[in-house]
Amino acid sequence: MSALKGNIISVIGSGLIGRSWAMVFLSGGFRVKIYDCQPGQAASAIQEISKQLKEVEQAQMLRGDLSVEDQLVLLSSHDNLSQALEGAFFIQECVFEDLETKQSVFREVEGHVGESVVLSSSTSCLLPSNIFSRVQNRKRCIVSHPVNPPYYVRLVELVPHPETVAEVLDGTHALMTQLGQAPVRLRKEIDGFALNRVQYAIIAESWRLVTEGVISVQDIDLVMSEGLGMRYAFIGPMETIHLNAPEGLEDYLRRYREGMKRVLSSFGPVPEFSGEEAKSINQEICGLIPSDQHHLSTRRQWRDHLLMGLAKMKK
User: Fold this and answer.
1) Cis peptide upstream of residue 149 (ω within 30 degrees of 0)
2) For the chain, give me the number of helices (H) and strands (E)?
3) Are residues 180 and 209 in the same domain?
4) Is residue 190 a part of any domain in this protein?
5) Sign (positive/negative) of CA torsion 75, 7, 94, 103?
6) Strand-pair partners of 33
7) Same structural domain for residues 160 and 50?
8) Phi-psi region of 262 (alpha: psi -120 to 50; beta: other; left: phi over 0)
9) Are residues 270 and 137 in the same domain?
């Protein structure tokens, strides 16, 4: 896609995801215009981005070939949408997860940009056919769903609208690859995309095991962090089963197919994630990590620090 030869990317929304995307785009040497409809919010976002970039530089995890100072020169804040979109070849929307809001944003954005400009949404599970329903030219629309925080966790799910042309999907894949992300293509839209469907399946069974008295909250988390998560940090479920039998995947299925089917058939219904079950699990997790902002913020910083180390090791 020739449009990807441009050098300006506009980020709509200056919250956590918007700031993270801005950092990723800056690392690739792109000029980034960050916009927020709330006056002053985009300017505040630049201060936070500056702080975060200096922190990752100190941790020797700064991405790209440019210094923090050189990256920040490429960043500008805008309260005026038209100015924020001027000259951009790629628009990354990062407003909060509300269908009506996202539809309104893209309807307004389309009125300020040319036909070749790619319109991309950061939605985590809203379908492209719904998000872009008010856009006239839907062939250039795509979902680029990052994993929080995208600066350290590099997966990006690319989900096309039914009318999205291959050039846009391929071009966005090339852009994300150029930025050092790990893009994956979904061949068609599906509720929850791929990552959340897998994640929700894990959450649901973990929830059932806790509420049925099989295991504690702390121990089910250890099943992932000290068990499955150790290898899933490097290989996925298909490669896992391929490597877990002497003769590969077919051998694994011969050995374990019936056991897998038996266990899977014993899974219970989808949990409600509410009521006394939710209250009990919340009480248990808060006993480990209190839900006040100090404890949550400290734990998130700990998580991000370890993600930085893991990303560095994988690189």
Assistant:
1) yes
2) 14, 8
3) no
4) no
5) positive
6) 10, 76
7) yes
8) alpha
9) no
Continuous segment of H or E residues that includes residue 65: none
Determine the Cα–Cα distance for residues 22 and 284; give it in Å rounded to an integer.
Answer: 36
Check which CATH number belongs to the domain holding 97 and give it: 3.40.50.720
Residue 147 lies in a domain: yes
State the residue range of the domain holding 225: 195-314
Q: Structural domain tally of the chain?
A: 2
Helix (H) or strand (E) holding 1: none
Map tokens 């690319």 to a residue: 158
pLDDT tens, the chain, 315 aa long: 444 456 999 999 999 999 999 999 999 999 999 999 999 999 999 999 999 999 999 988 899 999 999 999 999 999 999 999 999 999 999 999 999 999 999 999 999 999 999 999 999 989 999 999 999 999 999 999 999 889 989 999 999 999 999 999 999 999 999 999 999 999 999 999 999 999 999 999 999 999 999 999 999 999 999 999 999 999 999 999 999 999 999 999 999 999 999 999 999 999 999 999 999 999 999 999 999 999 999 999 899 889 888 988 887
Q: Please tell me the predicted confidence (pLDDT) of residue 6.
A: 63
End-to-end Cα spacing for the chain: 28
Closest alpha carbon to 109 in 85, 87, 131? 85
Which two three-digit tokens encode residue 170?
A: 């391929």
Phi, psi (degrees; rounded to nearest 5) at 133 = -65, -25
87 in any annotated domain = yes
- Cα dist. 67→58, 60, 63, 72 in Å? 12, 11, 9, 9
Domain membership flag for residue 216: yes
SS3 143: strand
Helix/strand/coil for 32: strand
